[in-house]
Write a structure and sequence with these properties.
Strand order of the largest sheet: 2-8-7-6-5-3-4
Organism: Micromonospora viridifaciens
GO biological process, one term: glycine biosynthetic process
Number of helices: 15
Structural class: alpha/beta
Radius of gyration: 21 Å
Number of domains: 2
Family: Belongs to the threonine aldolase family.
Oligomer: single chain
CATH architecture of the largest domain: 3-Layer(aba) Sandwich
GO molecular function: L-allo-threonine aldolase activity
Helix content: 40-55%
Mean pLDDT: 97
CATH topology of the largest domain: Aspartate Aminotransferase, domain 2
Keywords: Pyridoxal phosphate
């Protein structure tokens, strides 16, 4: 689905005015976001300067506690943070090959930055729509310097391994002499399915990246966490990549607010996602994956063109103040479209019967074949 800016504003305005929201959250205005930042800052808090002090330092300290690591470096983007982590692994091991899933973020969403900027090569770890197994890593036909694990694997449906599978695949990478980097953009909500704390998960790996805006509702920004040596290297390369901004306190304060207010709510979202997915699975010819969801996000397929589904959802929002699911896109199967469902705070207000009723209102707006 492609948008003009006007299309996006229209959709966000409609979502903001909805009384019932199944997937996603109501967008906040700039004034509302500034109020959150103001409420998070103490009166005597001074700005950070080039990544030092202020809210950035407090955010790094807090993330270090949550992940149980020696050191943390704030980055303006996760793409930049991961480029640095993979470069570090290559320099440390002397191997320019990186173990990547074909659906991983560096291969799908970063314009091959790992290769173009980092001079690295991808070794595909599996062709299956899930994270690789220990057996697949052991069977790789060439050595790798770093194995990147994306938890959850977003473009396969936000899927996770179980804890024993994760431990085994990390062990297999170690046997191959590889470092392990965790793409933990959505690590915060993965802890429920894995049955371990974020610190226990991060302890398996050599480096961990986390995002502050995907699930926590921050403005932007990421962190790279690991050893003190890694973070010293990361700060130097952050500068080289142009990521050492003069001041980043707005993003850091928004991230701190997310850690304080959204992080404790994520387990409730994950639990409610199971109810939402089960309700949606009862719709005519609908399919959800995974079933049950591993996090608070999952995929939904319906037997209609994406354009019709997006139009129906927007009309429902504008005329009835109710938001079902947006962001539909066509699949390789004609007439079947896919959307990602995100269960967050607003969805907690809807029980199974209300979800089915909302879905019926949505489906009745579709053209009759």
């Amino acid at each position: 689905m492609t948008d003009s800016y006007a299309d996006r504003v229209r959709r966000l305005t409609a979502l903001r005015g909805c009384e019932a929201v199944l997937s996603g959250v109501r967008p906040e205005s700039v004034a509302e976001q500034l109020a959150t930042i103001r409420a998070t800052a103490t009166d005597d808090l001074l700005p950070d300067f080039y990544g030092e002090g202020g809210a950035v330092e407090e955010l790094e300290r807090r993330v270090g506690e949550l992940l149980g690591v020696e050191a943390v470096a704030f980055f303006p983007t996760g793409t930049m943070a991961q480029q640095v982590a993979l470069r570090y692994g290559a320099e440390l091991t002397g191997r320019d090959a990186v173990g990547l899933h074909p659906l991983s973020h560096p291969l799908v969403h970063e314009r091959d930055a790992y290769a173009v900027l980092g001079g690295l090569r991808a070794v595909l770890t599996t062709g299956a729509p899930r994270n690789p197994t220990a057996e697949e890593i052991a069977a790789l036909d060439e050595p790798i310097g770093t194995l990147l694990l994306e938890l959850p694997l977003r473009d396969a449906g936000f899927v996770l391994p179980n804890w024993d599978e994760l431990v085994a695949v990390v062990g297999a990478a170690r046997q191959r002499g590889a470092r392990v980097h965790l793409d933990g953009a959505r690590l915060w909500e993965s802890a429920v399915h894995l049955g371990r704390s974020t610190a226990e998960i991060a302890a398996l790996t050599d480096s961990t990246y986390v995002s502050f805006y995907k699930s926590l509702g921050g403005h932007s920004g990421a962190a790279l966490a690991g050893s003190a040596e890694l973070v010293r290297y990361a700060r130097a390369w952050r500068h080289r990549y142009g990521g050492n901004l003069f001041q980043q306190w707005p993003a850091a304060l928004a991230a701190l607010a997310g850690l304080a207010h959204e992080l404790p709510r994520l387990p409730g979202y994950v639990a409610h996602a199971k109810l939402v997915a089960a309700a949606l699975a009862t719709l005519p010819a609908a399919r959800v994956h995974p079933a049950p969801p591993h996090t608070h996000q999952f995929r939904l397929w319906l037997p209609h063109p994406a354009a019709a589904l997006n139009a129906a959802n927007l009309a429902l929002a504008e005329e009835e103040k109710a938001w079902f699911v947006g962001g539909w896109r066509d699949t390789e199967v004609p007439g079947i479209a896919l959307a990602e469902v995100t269960v967050a705070g607003p969805a907690l207000e809807l029980d199974a019967d209300q979800i089915v009723a909302l879905a019926d209102r949505f489906l009745h707006r579709l053209p009759r074949s």
